Amino acid sequence: MIADKSKFVPRVCYEIFVRSFCDSNGDGIGDINGIISKLDYLNELGIEAIWLTPIHPSPSYHKYDVTDYYAIEPEYGTMDDFKRLLDAAHAHGIHIYLDLIINHTSTLHPWFSEARKSNSNEFRNFYWWMTPPQIEALGISTRETSDDSQVVYPWHENLEDPEKYYGLFFKGMPDLNYHSEALRDELEKIIRFWLVEIGVDGFRLDAARHIYPDWEKHLSIEFWQYFSNIVQEVKPDAFTVGEVWAETEEVAPYFRYLDATFHFDLSFALQRMLIGERDEEIVEKLQASYALFEKYNPLFVDAIMLTNHDQDRIGSVTGNHKAKIKMAASILLTLPGQPYIYYGEEIGMLGTKPDPYIREPFLWTNNEPESGNTSWIEAQFSTTDTVAPLEIQQADPESVFNHYRTLIQLRKSEPALAQIFAPNLHRVCLHDNQMLAYLRPHIDKSLIIMHNLSQFSKPILMPADKADFVHIVFSNDPQHSELLTKMELAPYCSLILASIPNR
After folding, report:
1. Catalytic residue (choose from 81, 99, 206, 360)
2. What homologous superfamily is domain 110-166 in, according to CATH?
3. Which of 120, 262, 371, 381 has the highest CB neighbour count under 10 A?
4. Cα(423)–Cα(103) distance, integer angstroms
5. Rounded distance, CA 116 to CA 132, Å?
């Protein structure tokens, strides 16, 4: 069982796709110094932890195919730059989580360059190799596609080699084989280097359910016991959040060894609800998932998000509907868990697959000189014609940015919303499946949150036992101010209520 890290868990996190966030030197590519220059902004927004997408050297634009685990991608800066980022982030009270890619490497990694030379090479067992007859005998020549990999034929040829190598995601990303004790020794060195020598606060763990291939799937969970034991030994307060892109039942066992995992079922349910404008009994589904997670770890952290760098942006999912974009934020930031905001969500950025277009440049300003805007790709979705840059939104009290900022501040200041462990969530029945309402009970001050998912004004049919919840903590419906006097909620609006004592 993992240790109690309750003192070290940030309440609001932010995912930065480094290449697209902020360019400090005018080469069009986001970099580490660019992130340093925006820490005041992130602090203003209310962010307490940053998940950085991979920063290691890599031949790709996304850097998920590592060639050196001990270095910084030169396009992004130097190790000294990264150390300055850590120091500056910590001075702002912000943790840094490193995206650790240990399911696979690049084919250009020295390990694989050696392994592919011959089946007697000392690095050969760092990867998965089989002859075509062996592959056929095991019935593993093809696989069913999954949300996180569309590859059907995962075995790839190595020129003039009788054996093929296994690469679940892409032929340029050969999977590592952790049956190799020598590889495990190398992994331990990598963990120690980043947690102790460099001082990062934790890891986002890529492809956590695929550490072993499908035919040895059960070993992936056991692997994380080994991994977490190393983390506990070298830095007990380090935080781990895993990408387990699967349904809740498959996700739950990973909580035995990881502090948090991303809640993909919730992400997709929220997207469907925003499109269909109807509740999917989300409170009951969340309660069921909490009960399941708790069986494996009473101190589980539910890492919740709207979308991430592998999904169509929530702005596009909603059809660039500003009120729905705001409501998506209202739901995310009032549910239990540890929310992760994908960079640009707070200004309503847009994007649909293919992947580069869900990772477009953050819009800081209207492309003024030295704005920090990156230009490595020509944006097709998030342009100044479709999304107001941050500079404009900061001055607009009705902007998506200021909506996010207000709700983040509220989440951090209200104990009922800030609670991460032992999620506090109960259904409030308003007798309308286009009205989502829930109670966040707390000994200091309980809150009722309600969202009108529809395009129509809706009556608020408050249960009799909740009649004293009339003090308005938050509302983006202009007809409400300090007290709930009009029992109605405008389309796509949200309301947070507290009770008035002795009423």
Report:
1. 206
2. Oligo-1,6-glucosidase; Domain 2 (3.90.400.10)
3. 262
4. 31
5. 16
**Which residues does 490 contact at the CB level (< 8 Å), separation at least 6?**
452, 457, 477, 478, 479
Residuewise pLDDT in 10s, the chain (503 residues): 445 555 568 889 999 999 999 999 999 999 999 999 999 999 999 999 999 999 999 999 999 999 999 999 999 999 999 999 999 999 999 999 999 999 999 999 999 999 999 999 999 999 999 999 999 999 999 998 877 888 899 999 999 999 999 999 999 999 999 999 999 999 999 999 999 999 999 999 999 999 999 999 999 999 999 999 999 999 999 999 999 999 999 999 999 999 999 999 999 999 999 999 999 999 999 999 999 999 999 999 999 999 999 999 999 999 999 999 999 999 999 999 999 999 999 999 999 999 999 999 999 998 766 689 999 999 999 999 999 999 999 999 999 999 999 999 999 999 999 999 999 999 999 999 999 999 999 999 999 999 999 999 999 999 999 999 999 999 999 999 889 989 999 999 999 999 986 44
CA distance 172 to 156: 9
Q: Are 355 and 64 in contact (CB under 8 A)?
A: no
Question: Would you kindly state where each structural domain of the chain is located, as residue ranges?
Answer: 6-103+180-415, 110-166, 424-499
Q: DSSP letters of 27-63?
A: SSS--HHHHHHTHHHHHHHT--EEEEPP-S--SSSS-
Provide the greatest CA pair distance for the chain.
82
Rounded Cα distance between 154 and 175, Å, is: 10
Check if 206 is active-site. yes
What span, in angstroms and rounded, lies between the C-alpha atoms of 330 and 446? 17
Q: Residue 187 to residues 64, 82, 83, 103, 471: CA-CA distances in angstroms?
A: 17, 21, 21, 11, 53
Judge whether 243 counts as a catalytic residue.
yes
What is the model's pTM? 0.96
SS3 158: coil
Distance in angstroms (rounded) separating the CA atoms of residues 176 and 170: 13
What distance in Å separates the CA atoms of residue 433 and residue 320, rounded to the nearest whole number? 23
DSSP codes of every residue in 131-145: -HHHHHHHT-S----
Give how far the C-alpha of residue 431 lies from the chain's centroid of Cα atoms, to the nearest Å.
33
Structure tokens at 46: 């209310």
CATH of 6-103+180-415, one of 3.20.20.80, 1.10.579.10, 3.90.850.10, 3.60.20.30: 3.20.20.80
Is the N-terminal amide bond of 213 cis, ω within 30° of 0? Answer: no
Distances (CA, A) of 226 to 174, 221, 258, 360: 22, 9, 11, 37
The one catalytic residue in 31, 201, 243, 346 is: 243
Helices (H), 235-281: 248-251, 264-276
Q: Which CATH architecture has domain 424-499?
A: Sandwich (2.60)
